[in-house]
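Course assignment 3, question 2. Fill in each field.
Student: A.L.
Task: Predict the tertiary structure for the chain below.
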Amino acid sequence: MNLGSDFYMNLALKEAWKYQFLTYPNPAVGCLVLDKYGKILSIKAHQKAGTFHAERLCVNEILEKYGKDALKDSVFYVTLEPCSKQGRTPPCHELLIKYKVKEVNIGSSDSSQNGINELRQAGIKVNLGILQDECDKLIAPFKFWLDNKPFVLFKLAINLNYNNEGSISNEYLRTYFHEIRTNIDYLIICGNTLRLDNPMLDARYSTSKKAPNLL
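Answer field:
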């Protein structure tokens, strides 16, 4: 049963949002792959700058679980145009061409890449603009970085009864936000937060322990 492009792109978006801000300065990107019969083979997202992109993570999982034949005539849903330039990881468009992907559905284009043209020249069908507004929101921090503009992330912790008394976070959220702290330059807090909570403002729950400068 074909559930529609929006449905599959939405699943890729949900996976990518799990790693929003953690991939900075790289964009958060999600990818979903269907085989030629419409079965979902993999859903992955880019997790950290310098590591494999979402498309390659999907391909690696499919190769391990199903073998390379499963990729032939497969259909990809990617929230952002596949990269075409060599960086710290190889370009993703070459991977899709290598395994004879049939179709690539893309949410947002990337002016810094040429992946769409490369895929089309290789005979792969490309559809652009699937849930584009939602995909554009996902890569907003990346666009600010491309334009050399500051991006401000605002965090508000509040209970369901609209107060901020007591412990609000849990271990998962603390780890997530401490990982975000390792990717930002400056951390600004209000006076009451300093006087009442006296927070440590470090990144002790992150893997790198790199804390931002304080303002």
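Instructor remarks: The mean pLDDT is 90. Strands lie at 30-34, 40-45, 75-80, 103-108, 125-128, 186-187, 213-214.
Grade: pending
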